[in-house]
């Protein structure tokens, strides 16, 4: 086990009756890390967080906090404060009483309690609302109260369960930077559950992608973005073109994937590629690494003849939607300058191509 | 929000309105008028004389009965609230959905039989040769005087109010946001402490209204203090019947009744204010 790990999940399984919510999970969370757990609803991300908080007991395996197993520790004996999706602020207490709550439970004296709560209200820039009722606050202000309430005890770890999902888009972006700065300044480990790729990738040091109770990939946002490790991840991120075929040739640092669109070569020195020989596999190529041209390119590239079916502009980049002869969709994302020389009209015949080293092979599930 | 009454709305509310005027407002006005009538030679005659108010309010026995009734009703509402809470807590937090429906059903069953019948059956349990004393006799205890005591009156009040209070408490407990309880646990608030720090404050309105109902029902009850308490100590309801029987003193009885109504209004108002204290819309 890593010495810097604050939390470790060792073979953790969670079943609800027949339903397996989390299957054999092994991963670690480092001290001071901002970890995002991402996946669509029902993938087990919230269950994972709740097990860490002690709100659900694992069916199998061990969860350790600072090396000590915490499976049998009830939630009120752990220091794993959580920020709920609904925020779960106490409506019968005012703002400062909400923030003081955890200190009161720890038997901190009245004056000390007030002082520390005021400090956090000040830090979250909501001092002026100290005496207000929760119902009198806006969504963003409530968010700050919820954060202050959890952080006032200065825990080692903070759990967040989709805390921004109720906010409007502009406020969401503002709160993201508040959260990221807060995490950096305090050095508290954040475990952040979300279904939003933009939230996870903009804030987290590392991202865990889950699907159907299983971890699909763990890595930094860049790693995951550049080399999605499974077909699910590539699909989920939606930033890669995906081709499926048979691996017919490996070795010598190269492999060939035979697909209905033709044979694609790729550079591959990985041991794992050899194991894929003769099997069905998936090739992913980032849409930003996929190029377009009018004629067949030469050199060590893979090329597919395509027909343009649509385009979409987002700021400085454009996404061109294309279709191969057999109806397979390919996307190309480029800046406007890069596309300027191409005749971009719906129905235009073009060639999509990419360098062999930009393709990544993942086993078919 | 205020909207002008439409014909559609009136169609449904009018019958109730008429009913209320006929059988509540009108009798109440009449009761007020009656309290100023006088009685001469066992005959009432319309009058406008404050003598009934002066007589009743000048009597020690009236104030004694008032104090007794108020204290008994207050004690009953506190006692029933405390006894009912663990029951409604268990039903709302510890039972499965099916078991909870059954529990609610069981709580409704007592309303199937008349309260008077249930009080009479308590007499069979509590009398000197009753079921309780016979059973105590088997283990060499008793017999004790159980019937015609304040304790028996209290049992009657509980019989009257317990199921209702459990139901009222239940409906405020089941609507508590469960994440609030998890959040409290998560902030190091233990199980028992959560009951006092989160559950009771969250359900305060319902708990206070339930206690208020217990108070209202017990304060005006005639059956328990007479059939289980034996009419001693005298409550206001007993005093009313005594007053009407002695020399046709309906006007004086009206004074007692109006005092009771005034008291209940004041208590209800205070309770509702307390329940919603610190809440803003």
From TrEMBL, chain A:
One of its GO terms (molecular function) is ATP binding. Keywords: ATP-binding, Nucleotide-binding, Transport. Gene3D superfamilies: 2.40.50.100, P-loop containing nucleotide triphosphate hydrolases. Residues 7-237 form the ABC transporter domain. Pfam families: ABC_tran, TOBE_2. Coiled coil: none annotated. PROSITE patterns: ABC_TRANSPORTER_1, ABC_TRANSPORTER_2. The keyword Cell wall biogenesis/degradation does not apply. This is ABC transporter ATP-binding protein.
UniProtKB/TrEMBL annotation, chain B:
InterPro entries: MetI-like (IPR000515), MetI-like_sf (IPR035906). The keyword Repeat does not apply. It is a multi-pass membrane protein. Keywords: Cell membrane, Membrane, Transmembrane, Transmembrane helix, Transport. PROSITE patterns: ABC_TM1. Residues 66-271 form the ABC transmembrane type-1 domain. It holds the Pfam family BPD_transp_1. It comes from the Bacteria. This is ABC transporter permease. PANTHER family: INNER MEMBRANE ABC TRANSPORTER PERMEASE PROTEIN YDCU-RELATED, INNER MEMBRANE ABC TRANSPORTER PERMEASE PROTEIN YDCU-RELATED-RELATED. Belongs to the binding-protein-dependent transport system permease family. CysTW subfamily. It is found in: Cell membrane. Coiled coil: none annotated. It comes from Albidovulum sediminis. The chain crosses the membrane at residues 16-39, 60-93, 99-117, 124-142, 154-176, 196-219, 253-276.
């Amino acid at each position: 086990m890593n010495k810097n790990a604050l939390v470790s999940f060792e073979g953790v399984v969670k079943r609800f009756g027949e339903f397996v919510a989390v299957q054999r999970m092994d991963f670690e969370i480092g001290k001071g890390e901002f970890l995002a757990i991402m996946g669509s609803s029902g993938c087990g991300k919230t269950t994972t967080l709740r097990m860490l908080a002690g709100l659900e007991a694992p069916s199998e395996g061990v969860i350790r906090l600072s090396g000590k197993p915490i499976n049998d520790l009830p939630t009120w004996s752990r220091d794993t404060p959580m920020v709920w999706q609904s925020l779960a602020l106490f409506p019968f207490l005012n703002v400062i009483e909400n923030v003081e709550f955890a200190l009161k439970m720890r038997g901190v004296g009245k004056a000390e309690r007030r002082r520390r709560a005021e400090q956090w209200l000040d830090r979250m820039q909501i001092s002026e609302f100290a005496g207000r009722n929760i119902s009198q606050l806006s969504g963003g202000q409530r968010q700050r109260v919820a954060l202050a309430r959890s952080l006032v005890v200065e825990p080692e770890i903070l759990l967040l369960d989709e805390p921004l999902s109720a906010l409007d888009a502009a406020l969401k972006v503002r709160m993201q930077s508040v959260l990221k700065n807060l995490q950096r300044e305090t050095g508290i480990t954040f475990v952040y559950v979300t279904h939003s790729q933009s939230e996870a990738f903009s804030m987290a040091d590392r991202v865990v992608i889950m699907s159907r109770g299983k971890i699909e990939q763990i890595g930094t946002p860049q790693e995951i973005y550049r080399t999605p490790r499974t077909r699910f991840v590539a699909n989920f991120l939606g930033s890669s073109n995906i081709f499926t075929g048979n691996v017919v040739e490996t070795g010598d640092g190269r492999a060939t994937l035979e697909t209905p669109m033709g044979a694609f070569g790729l550079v591959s020195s990985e041991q794992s590629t050899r194991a894929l020989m003769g099997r069905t596999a998936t090739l992913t190529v980032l849409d930003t690494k996929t190029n377009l041209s009018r004629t067949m390119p030469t050199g060590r590239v893979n090329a597919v003849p395509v027909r343009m079916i649509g385009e979409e502009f987002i700021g400085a980049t454009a996404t061109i939607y294309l279709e191969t002869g057999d109806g397979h969709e390919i996307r190309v994302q480029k800046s406007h300058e890069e596309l300027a020389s191409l005749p971009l009209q719906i129905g235009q015949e073009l060639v999509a191509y990419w360098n062999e080293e930009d393709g990544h092979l993942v086993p078919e599930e | 929000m205020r909207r002008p009454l439409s014909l559609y709305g009136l169609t449904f509310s009018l019958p109730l309105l008429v009913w209320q005027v006929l059988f509540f407002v009108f009798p109440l006005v009449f009761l007020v008028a009656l309290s100023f009538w006088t009685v001469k030679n066992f005959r009432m005659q319309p009058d406008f004389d404050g003598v009934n108010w002066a007589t009743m309010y000048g009597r020690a026995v009236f104030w004694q009965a008032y104090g007794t009734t108020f204290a008994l009703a207050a004690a009953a509402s506190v006692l029933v609230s405390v006894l009912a809470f663990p029951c409604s807590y268990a039903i709302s937090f510890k039972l499965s959905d099916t078991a909870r429906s059954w529990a609610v059903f069981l709580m409704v069953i007592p309303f199937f039989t008349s309260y008077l019948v249930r009080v009479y059956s308590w007499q069979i349990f509590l009398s000197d040769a009753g079921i309780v004393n016979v059973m105590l006799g088997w283990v060499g205890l008793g017999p004790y005087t159980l019937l015609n005591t304040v304790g028996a009156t209290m049992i009657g009040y509980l019989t009257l109010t317990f199921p209702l209070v459990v139901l009222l408490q239940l409906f405020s407990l089941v609507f508590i946001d469960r994440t609030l309880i998890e959040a409290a646990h998560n902030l190091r608030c233990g199980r028992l402490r959560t009951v006092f720090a989160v559950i009771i404050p969250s359900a305060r309105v319902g708990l206070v209204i339930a206690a208020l109902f217990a108070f209202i029902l017990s304060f005006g009850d005639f059956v328990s203090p007479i059939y289980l308490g034996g009419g001693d100590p005298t409550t206001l309801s007993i005093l009313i019947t005594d007053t009407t029987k002695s020399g046709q003193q309906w006007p004086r009885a009206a004074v007692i009744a109006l005092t009771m109504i005034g008291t209940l209004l004041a208590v209800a108002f205070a309770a509702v204010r307390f329940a919603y204290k610190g809440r803003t819309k």
